[in-house]
Amino acid sequence: MSHDLALPTLFADRTQAGRCLIEPLARYAGRPDVIVLALPRGGVPVAYEVATALNVRLDLLVVRKLGMPFHPEFAMGAIASGGVTFLNDDTLRAYPVEPALFDAVVARETEELARRERGYRGGRPPLQLKDQVVILIDDGLATGATMRAAIQAVRAQSPARIVVAVPVAPPETLEALYGEVDELVCPLVPERMVSVGYWYQDFPQTSDEEVMTLMGQADQQALCRRAPHD
Asked: Is-contact 45 30, C-beta < 8 A?
């Protein structure tokens, strides 16, 4: 795990947070076998900074948190592209949810995941991650449920290496992820997390438009990399 105690205690915004991940990931720069996968929406501005600086591919892995019916911010699990479901068994044991309410949450989030998959990926081909070095990026982790669903979705494609890079996460969440990935990068590890947004001075909701704009810019950069040089 990478920590840097010289970092500011607050990130200005997601752009600055992404720049704080560049140096710890510098050895992956310029490698054709590396792909950065952003978890939309908030992970996209962070991942864009990393992929641009490292000059590597950027794509999306759509993941949706399964929030508790009466406390939507509290994750009881998550779903990811490819039909992957991760359930937080400890949470569900501590706070049992009626099957009908659970199914309603899953149905709603599955519909939203499909909507975002269509909107964000558009004409992009399906992800091909076999034998690739995959760097999964979000704007921070709280329970880690969405990231664990993402890890399962990526692992199903037999990548060469899975790296998780996030600006901020609590130690217990990182500890739970430690055995599931090849490398963890997290510069800011507060003992008391509060929320992801607490560690940002500016933390607005990332819009669909911002996601599409940044991914379009990344596509243009990829075309420039592939274009023959005079």
From this structure: no
List, in order of start, the domains of the chain with CATH numbers: 14-61+128-220 (3.40.50.2020), 65-120 (no CATH)
Output the CA angle 40-46-50, nearest 5 degrees. 120
What is this structure's pTM?
0.90
User: Is residue 174 within 8 Å of residue 184, measured between CB atoms?
Assistant: yes
Token pair in block for residue 71: 């406390």
Tens digits of residue pLDDT in 10-32: 999 999 999 999 999 999 999 99
d(CA 43, CA 45): 6
CA distance from start to end of the chain: 42
In this structure, are residues 230 and 47 in contact, taking their beta carbons and an 8 Å threshold? Answer: no
Residues 6 or more apart whose CB falls under 8 angstroms from that of 80 comprise 61, 62, 63, 64, 86, 113, 146, 149, 150, 152, 153
Q: Tell me the pLDDT tens digit for each residue of 98-119.
A: 999 999 999 999 999 999 888 8
